[in-house]
């Protein structure tokens, strides 16, 4: 009971710290931002609100100014089931990438951030 309360409290401190220290979003031309928005429509991030690795990934999304749909794999049973079925395991963060060849599931915050950097950082 004490461990759970400590974990929840620490999670809320992490979320608050993120809100207070969030980086500025990348500035783009209106056409560049429209292209990013269109490309991001094929992405979904399965996450837990207070997970430190999910916070790290959301901060990168905010910094890169990439509006990716967030799916709550903890509080939404449908999102959790989709993550289990599609990705094969309930592990967050997980980026669902819809491509012409099908759907790809990417785990690990560092891999997700590297993918987002490569795909969106140089869009002007």
Structure notes:
The protein has about 120 residues and is of the alpha+beta class. The protein has a single domain (about 35-120), classed as Glutaredoxin. About 55% of the residues lie in helices and about 15% in strands. It has five helices and four strands, in the order ααβαβαββα. The protein has helices at about 1-20, 30-40, 50-65, 75-85, 110-120; strands at about 45, 70, 95-100, 100-105. Strands 2-1-3-4 form a four-stranded mixed sheet. Helix 3 runs parallel beside helix 5 (about 110-120). The model has no long low-confidence stretch (mean pLDDT about 95).
CATH fold label = Glutaredoxin
- What is the N-to-C order of secondary-structure elements (H for helix, E for strand)? HHEHEHEEH
Q: What is the H level of CATH, i.e. the homologous superfamily?
A: Glutaredoxin
Largest sheet: 4 strands, mixed
**Fraction of helical residues:** 40-55%
Backbone shape: flat
CATH class: Alpha Beta
- In the CATH hierarchy, the architecture is 3-Layer(aba) Sandwich
Q: Assign the structural class, choosing from mainly alpha, mainly beta, alpha/beta, alpha+beta, or little secondary structure.
A: alpha+beta
Between the first and last Cα atoms, what is the distance in angstroms? 50 Å
Number of domains: 1
Instruction: Round the Cα radius of gyration to an integer and report it.
Output: 15 Å
InterPro entries: Glutathione_S-Trfase_N (IPR004045), Thioredoxin-like_sf (IPR036249)
Domain GST N-terminal: 45-122
Protein name: Glutaredoxin family protein 1
Pfam families: GST_N_3 (PF13417)
């Amino acid at each position: 009971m004490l461990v759970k309360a400590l974990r929840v409290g620490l999670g809320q401190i992490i979320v608050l710290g993120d809100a207070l220290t969030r980086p500025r979003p990348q500035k783009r031309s209106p056409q560049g931002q429209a292209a990013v928005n269109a490309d991001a429509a094929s992405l979904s991030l399965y996450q837990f609100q207070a997970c430190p690795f999910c916070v790290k990934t959301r901060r990168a999304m905010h910094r890169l100014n990439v509006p990716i749909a967030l799916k709550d794999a903890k509080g939404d049973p449908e999102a959790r089931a989709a993550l289990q079925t599609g990705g094969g395991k309930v592990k967050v963060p997980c980026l669902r990438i819809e491509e012409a060849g099908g759907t790809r599931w990417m785990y690990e915050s560092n891999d997700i951030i590297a993918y987002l950097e490569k795909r969106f950082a140089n869009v002007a």
